[in-house]
Amino acid sequence: MRMFIKIIYRYGICILVTALMCCLGLTHGIGILSAEEKCDLSKGACMKTVGDSEVTLDISPKPVKAMESLIFSVHVKGVNTGDNLVLELAMPGMYMGDNHVLLKKAGESRYSGEGVIPRCHSGKTLWSATVDLPGKGQVEFPFDVLY
Fold first, then answer.
1. How far apart are CA 71 and CA 18, in angstroms?
2. Between the CA of residue 48 and those of 39, 81, 106, 135, what are the distances in Å?
3. Of 70, 120, 129, 133, which is most buried with the most CB atoms under 10 A?
4. What pLDDT, in 10s, does the model give residues 28-87?
5. Rounded distance, CA 129 to CA 113, Å?
6. In the chain, what are the domain boundaries?
């Protein structure tokens, strides 16, 4: 019986440490981002490059808040992307479920779609929007949301 209690205790400690690491964002090698790496999408659009292509992300309305309907707009220069793109929303270091926004063509090299950023029970506000560009790779936009 004592051995059983020791095993349960050790597994409980492991689960607790793993949960704490997830909450602190230590499970995926995510450190503190510099101001240059993080986008301030509550103030305006953010532009990143992937290869020789430019991708600009904007979110409205501003400020960007969790648990509200948001419009995600992407403008792509330098790559033929087709009729739709997919934007993936994720919280670095913590799995918040699959959250994909289908971006439909809204003009020449412009895409738009509607989505919601859920509120994290940990209180963390750092999120990431990743746009997949077929044949070019992915571009990631880390940003903060308000609760």
1. 34
2. 10, 16, 20, 17
3. 129
4. 444 455 555 899 999 999 999 988 889 999 999 999 999 999 999 999 998 888 889 999
5. 13
6. 1-31, 33-144
